[in-house]
Design brief:
The protein is an alpha+beta fold and 410 residues long. The chain has three domains: 60 residues, no CATH class; 230 residues, Hypothetical protein af1432; 75 residues. Helices cover 42% and strands 11% of the residues. It contains 14 helices and nine strands. The strands form two sheets. It has a five-stranded antiparallel beta sheet, with no helix packed on it. Helix 3 crosses helix 5, helix 4 crosses helix 5 and helix 9 packs antiparallel against helix 10.
Length: 410
């Protein structure tokens, strides 16, 4: 079954698109968006799905009298890609994006804390976070993506959920999906780990390795997420699927059910990539985060077995090999911050050199690697490795506070 590409964010539009149909008139290929009874009272795993075989058709006819269907949207290859152009320079929008990002972090924490304490999902707040997030991505996603590199170890759960929502929505934009579908992808990403509110905190924040029993409890967050989200009025139905299946893998070796590729919804595949990338590049109580290049390597090496190759390649292209704001070390030991990417020479960005291994420079220097810039020994500058924010005591937020201008308009 596949997740349906409809959006409860706009109930009026949804009602105009879907229509009721008696179950004896159903046919293969139709998208079922609603039933004449609560989803949890049926055998269907996903809240919204395409009828792909006769077993599903018979099950609908046995358990329902009337269902609502909607026109099919091809989730793998959009029929008409939308092309977006960033017309606003980062320097003009970074301040607003920063305020929006901080507000979204706070709102996401409130959403998860409320779920943990009461089990109630503040759908109005969820929709507000997603709409603001997508609005910033559509204006200029590079500003908001830059801010996502600044991570607070103590607020991992909330910030991770927000970043996965951001990355999922940004990837949907890169894929050429429509604004409504970008919002749906963002909602799936934001709520993908909501089931972790049911995992005991001593397990969730354990600094050491899990026992097998603890690991089984942690893995159950996917099933918890489905139970928490299913049947929630006003919530995009595909978010249920993403919460339940974002740890499934194409080769059938994921969890909770170990299903094969055709049973994994499209947005869940997107969320899986965003989730894996952010988990690898984030500091946790039990591990230090790795650089984006290592995350890209892991994703790419697991393409076709765990992750959809086309989505991985698009994600890497979107994020950039050396994304503006990342920390890089040169072969000669000097260390700097990538200021802008070079569109035609992605491995040769402009870099602000701020220190060597021993100390920070009193006078920092800009070098453009695409011009074969040389060091004092007349050796060309070549990047040796890349690191996450905070490495070598370089904190991106400090430089942004001091007015560092990072350019994405290449």
């Amino acid at each position: 079954m596949a997740c349906v590409m409809t959006s409860p964010l706009n109930q009026q539009a949804k009602k105009q698109q879907e229509h009721p149909i008696p179950v004896n008139e159903l046919a293969l290929g139709m998208f079922v968006t609603r039933l004449d009874k609560p989803w949890e009272e049926t055998d269907f795993l996903f809240q919204g799905f395409m009828i792909t075989n006769n077993n599903e058709l018979r099950a609908l006819q046995e358990q329902c009298t009337l269902v609502y269907v909607q026109a099919v949207v091809d989730q793998s290859t959009p029929s008409q890609k939308v092309h977006y152009i960033n017309k606003i320079r980062l320097s003009d929008k970074l301040s607003n994006a920063r305020s929006a990002y901080q507000s979204a972090c706070s709102d996401t924490k409130i959403i998860l804390d409320t779920m943990r304490l009461s089990g109630n999902l503040d759908i109005e707040r969820v929709n507000h976070v997603v709409e603001d997030m997508v609005d910033n991505i559509l204006k200029n996603e590079r500003a908001i993506m830059l801010l996502s590199q600044i991570k607070n170890r103590d607020e991992y759960t909330a910030e991770h959920s927000l970043r996965v929502g951001l990355f999922s929505a940004a990837l949907a934009k890169e894929l050429g999906l429509k604004p409504l579908e970008i919002k749906n992808a963002g909602t799936c990403g934001l709520l993908h780990d909501v089931g972790k509110v049911k995992v005991p905190l001593d397990i969730l924040n354990k600094p050491g390795a899990f026992t097998q029993q603890e690991y089984n409890i942690m893995k159950a967050h996917t099933s918890y997420g489905r139970k928490l989200l299913i049947g929630k009025a006003g919530l995009y139905a595909g978010a249920v699927d993403a919460a339940f299946t974002h740890h499934e893998r194409l080769d059938g070796k994921g969890y909770p059910r170990g299903v094969s590729a055709e049973k994994i919804p499209y947005f869940a595949r997107i969320v899986a990539i965003a989730d894996t990338y952010d988990a690898i590049t984030s500091h946790r109580c039990y591990k230090e985060g790795l650089a984006s290049l290592k995350a890209f390597e892991i994703l790419f090496n697991n393409s076709d077995t765990c992750y959809e190759r086309e989505l991985v390649e698009t994600f890497i292209k979107m994020m950039g090999v050396y994304a503006p704001g990342c920390i890089v070390e040169m072969h000669n030991g000097e260390i700097g911050i990538v200021i802008s990417a070079n569109k035609s020479k992605r491995l040769q960005p402009r870099v602000l050199l701020v220190r060597n291994k021993e100390q920070f420079y009193t006078q920092q220097r800009m070098v453009d690697l695409s011009t074969q810039a040389e060091d004092v020994n007349q050796s060309p500058y070549v990047i040796k490795d890349a690191y996450i924010d905070g490495t070598f005591d370089i904190n991106l937020s400090d430089y942004l506070e001091r007015g560092l201008q990072i350019d994405f308009d290449d």
